[in-house]
Amino acid sequence: MNVKVRPATRGDCKEISRMISELAVYEKMPEQVKITHEELERDGFCANPFFECLVAEVPEEHRSKEGEVSTEAFLSPSGSHAHNDESVTSLFLIFPTNHNKHTSTTFRNQPLLFTDSFSQLMSRGFPIVGYALYFYTYSTWKGRSVYLEDLYVMPDFRGKGIGKGLLSKVAEVGKKKQCVRLQLSVLDWNTPSRDFYAAKGAQDITASEGWRSLRFVGQDLDNLANEAPKD
Ligand SMILES: CC(C)(COP(=O)(O)OP(=O)(O)OC[C@H]1O[C@@H](n2cnc3c(N)ncnc32)[C@H](O)[C@@H]1OP(=O)(O)O)[C@@H](O)C(=O)NCCC(=O)NCCS
Known about the structure:
- The chain is α+β, with helices and mostly antiparallel strands.
- The chain folds into two domains: 4-61 and 127-219, Gcn5-related N-acetyltransferase (GNAT) (Aminopeptidase, 3-Layer(aba) Sandwich); 64-125, no CATH class.
- It is 29% helix and 27% strand.
- It has helices at 13-26, 37-44, 116-122, 162-176, 191-199, 205-209, 218-226, and strands spanning 4-7, 52-57, 68-77, 89-96, 106-107, 110-114, 128-139, 143-153, 181-184.
- A five-stranded mixed sheet has the order 1-2-7-8-9, sandwiched between helices.
- α1 packs across α2.
- It is globular and about 60 Å long.
- The termini are far apart.
- Mean pLDDT is 80; it is low at 64-121.
- Bound molecules: coenzyme A (COA).
- Residues 53-222 form the N-acetyltransferase domain.
- One of its GO terms (molecular function) is N-acetyltransferase activity.
- This is Spermidine/spermine N1-acetyltransferase family member 2b.
- Belongs to the acetyltransferase family.
- InterPro entries: Acyl_CoA_acyltransferase, Diverse_Substrate_AcTransf, GNAT_dom.
């Protein structure tokens, strides 16, 4: 399946919002997500947008009506190949878009392996299967920079080059604007993603330069702002 990487539109914000929540679950902090798709629409699609976003889109012909998958799918017991196995069965499946496809489904008491063709069929409920959200920052040492806030590919679509496509497109967009840096943060325990970025050439500046991430929020931010010198 060819997945297309393109700039997000206002109409993609519901899908982006869904994936922001999925990423937060992956990052073990789902309760931290307060943003709504309306806020994404307001902040990303205004005169001076706060962010830009790229999405990975599934071709039209692989989609069904929003919110469910309704299709015949071939499933095979774990380890066998669906098309060569006599035990293959044909099932009628209806999943809501938020169905967790990684629950332990079984057939004849064996764990089922979702084949690649099955995961392609699953995509019918999801027009957008990945995103990269970024914005511009400025380094007083180096100048124009682009900051990658989120990079996410839905589990069924990983390992197919989509993450690399999104990441390299952000690099291309940044280079076109004369950015000399692409920077991001990744959680310490997220070894798969750290390895992914390292494989693409990212330097770990926490290790080499010792930076810590700091944040003001809530009352602390209010207090700080209230202490500002009056104009
Ligand atoms: C990280 C993520 C975006 C990568 O997307 P993906 O579509 O699975 O990655 P790709 O298929 O494009 O992989 C591209 C390349 O990276 C390599 N790669 C992927 N995962 C890797 C890993 N864990 N370790 C080393 N290399 C890896 C692939 O082998 C491939 O190499 P190639 O270019 O030599 O063929 C995706 O796994 C994801 O969404 N993870 C969960 C969310 C997350 O952690 N996001 C980052 C938050 S900072």
